[in-house]
Amino acid sequence: MTSTSVTDEVPGPGRRPSLGGDRAGTGTGRLGDRLFGGAAVGAGLLVIGLVTLIGLFLLWKAIPALAGNEANFLTSREWQVSGDHPRFGIVEMLWTTVAASGIALLIAVPVGVAVALFITHYAPRWLSRPAANLVDLLAAVPSIVYGLWGLRTFGPTFVPVQEWLTAHLGWFPPFSATSISGSGTILFIGVVLAIMVLPIVTALSREVFAQTPVSHVEGALALGATKWEMIRTAVLPFGRPGVISASMLALGRALGETIAVTIIVSALAQGTPWTWSLLNGGETFASRIANNAAEFDSPQKTGAFIAAGLVLFVLTFVVNAIARVVIERRKAFSE
């Protein structure tokens, strides 16, 4: 029988047991960690590089057109990109894009959060799953279907709403009467965009609310809180960063929507007085570029539309950066 010393069996203070079989596994694990970490860093750098290249491309193509522009690009309502004296500005497109997207967000976020809370905390089990699947199906509907549905079906139904707003709130500039008739207005496209981005807000909010720590929920209920008080004090604070992220993602979708806006929104005719009214027509950045894609027959025209696209690119980037700052501040405050 081979004798074994105590020192070989029990490691002393500060000594780790020598397990030769684990060294290979540890080395493999470390190699896997390094490979995964390198792949993650590479993917992140690739995305940053692509975004940077897109921005540089837009800037490179837009600068010559902006240099030849004889109007103020940020404040002019004109859009004459042909000829030897081009004059174009983005103020109308900027207002239409921001106003329609803002309306969509004001409608979609409260409704989406309410639906997410219903599915996660109020609906019975037999209803919550079908309801979640039904809302998620809206995300699979193509944009052109929303546009045709809004133009042919929902538009005539929404006209009386706009007429009521004009009759009762016409003294308020955002609802003042305009020469645009029918449903091709900024307000209407905002409502359609709200329906389009509703699945994004609902799905992300639902996932965040469902991950609320059970200890927070049970602690609030144990202290005598009602279900709504529990949601207000435990669920909503925990899910606030997720709701903000969902809202910004939905806003990005609304800002860049093209087909549905192109189908629905009626363009302002030349010489039509511009107003602050949401019952007016207009074109967003995306719809203006899509409607005039056939005019990209010269560097000057192409550069003008690319300059408009550059503004949309910067606007989306700024919105996402602000959302990231808000989320980080919320995390720091909660910690």
Provide structural commentary:
A two-stranded antiparallel ribbon has the order 1-2. It has one domain (91-334): Orthogonal Bundle (MetI-like fold), CATH 1.10.3720. α10 (285-291) runs antiparallel to α11 (299-334). It has helices spanning 6-9, 20-68, 91-122, 125-137, 143-169, 186-210, 214-222, 227-256, 259-264, 285-291, 299-334; strands at residues 79-80, 87-88. 71% of the residues lie in helices and 1% in strands. The protein is an all-alpha fold.
Distance between the termini: 60 Å
Q: What is the name of the CATH topology?
A: MetI-like fold
Unreliably modeled segments: 1-10, 19-24, 267-271
Output the strand order for the largest sheet. Answer: 1-2
Rg over CA atoms, rounded to whole Å, is 28 Å
Q: Overall mean pLDDT score?
A: 83
H and E order: HHEEHHHHHHHHH
Beta-strand residue fraction: under 5%
- Quick one: biggest sheet? 2 strands, antiparallel
Q: Structural class, judged by helices and strands?
A: mainly alpha
Number of helices: 11
The name of the CATH architecture is Orthogonal Bundle
Query: How many structural domains does the protein architecture include?
Result: 1
Shape descriptor: globular
In the CATH scheme, the class would be Mainly Alpha
Tally the beta strands. Answer: 2
Name given to the CATH homologous superfamily: MetI-like
Report the helical percentage: over 70%
SSE arrangement:
Blueprint: H1 6-9, H2 20-68, E1 79-80, E2 87-88, H3 91-122, H4 125-137, H5 143-169, H6 186-210, H7 214-222, H8 227-256, H9 259-264, H10 285-291, H11 299-334
Antiparallel strand pairs: 1-2
